Amino acid sequence: MLQITDLQQEQKIAPLLRLGFRPFFLFGAVLAFTTVLYWAGFLQGHVSWIPSVNPIWWHGHEMLFGFLPAIIAGFLLTAVQNWTGIPGIRAGKLGALFALWVTARVLLFTDLGISMFAIMIIDVGFLLASAAVLAQPVLKIKQYRNLVFVPLLTLMAVANVVSYLPLLGLDAKFQQQGFYGMAMLVTMLVSLLGGRVVPFFTANGTGNSRLPVIMLLEVLSVVSVFTLFLYFISGVSLPPEFIAAVCFVGAIAQSLRWLRWRPFTTGQVPLLWSLHSSYVFIPIGLALMGIALLFPERFVLGHALHALTVGAMGGMILAMMARVSLGHTGRQLGAGGLMQGAFVLVVLAASLRSVGMFFWPQYSDVLLQAASLFWCLSFAAYVYIYWPILSAPRVDGKPG
């Protein structure tokens, strides 16, 4: 239990810097909708291009290596406090880590004459610093089960380096290797964390008992995605039939896993059905990727990938941010009408951007516009609702 002096010290810290989820959730969500808003405006000819880097690279990079790492860091650096019982990073140290993330975003959007190599070091440094901060309390109490997230963050840093290589004068193929590699790593992270929290939250929220874990499904779900990561990040040439088979095995395992969590019992609980409606985009995305690999002349692999990035990652992030932001500020769990609408909009955005454009590419322009609008509205709604929550002290007076 915290002593009075601990609470007095807490009062001296700005609320936004009292725990990792606060700045990273809030400004990660701001980046999520402003980046897509700017990108959509550029595609429609409404805004001029400001960043000095390639537009396609900037959009993909800032969503994969700007938005996603912010949320991942915010979640893990908050969760590690619960896992270990050791107070999480806060105050000046948290502010410095956040400043590292912000600096990379600003430098990539502006042209201040700083070398791309220096920008890469700053950007990659954020992921490595987050991994180091996460590792310290885990190692201190020898909680090795949760150490798995440290190498994951390190591999994300590697994927980020690979994505920068075309900007440093190397082959353009490294862009796709870095981007797709990162997408597979985050999919694996969502799969690992989802396997922990989704069935647990579902059982508690619906009053149903949890079914025992089938280890084969757990292993296949993770190994299939990690195999895809190795394939994409390495750039090796393998038979498309083999990689498609890996995708289909992963899709089947993830589907069975998800169904055993009883998603159809969650319809009356928005903070639950939002998790399930997002997670299902993992098997959808893997299945679409398998189809695209087998029939590249008819289907675009990038559309399939967006089922993972927009649906599984974007949707799961929105649902988890809504839940964690309430729980860690001392509030009751629940989602009002506006937040429920945001959950629906992000699912619509994912459906249009992935399934819609995958099967009906002739309508790509209108589908992309609608998906971009729905995405922006969903994350803007989160910022509108949670800005006053994240920037204020906990309502129960506790630290954090």
UniProtKB/TrEMBL annotation:
Segments crossing the lipid bilayer: 21-43, 63-84, 91-108, 114-135, 147-167, 179-201, 213-236, 242-259, 271-295, 307-326, 338-360, 366-387
UniProt KW keywords: Membrane, Transmembrane, Transmembrane helix
Superkingdom of source: Bacteria
InterPro entries noted in UniProt: NnrS (IPR010266)
Keyword Chloroplast: no
Matching Pfam families: NnrS (PF05940)
Protein biosynthesis among keywords: no
Protein name: NnrS family protein
Lineage per the UniProt record: Bacteria, Pseudomonadati, Pseudomonadota, Gammaproteobacteria, Alteromonadales
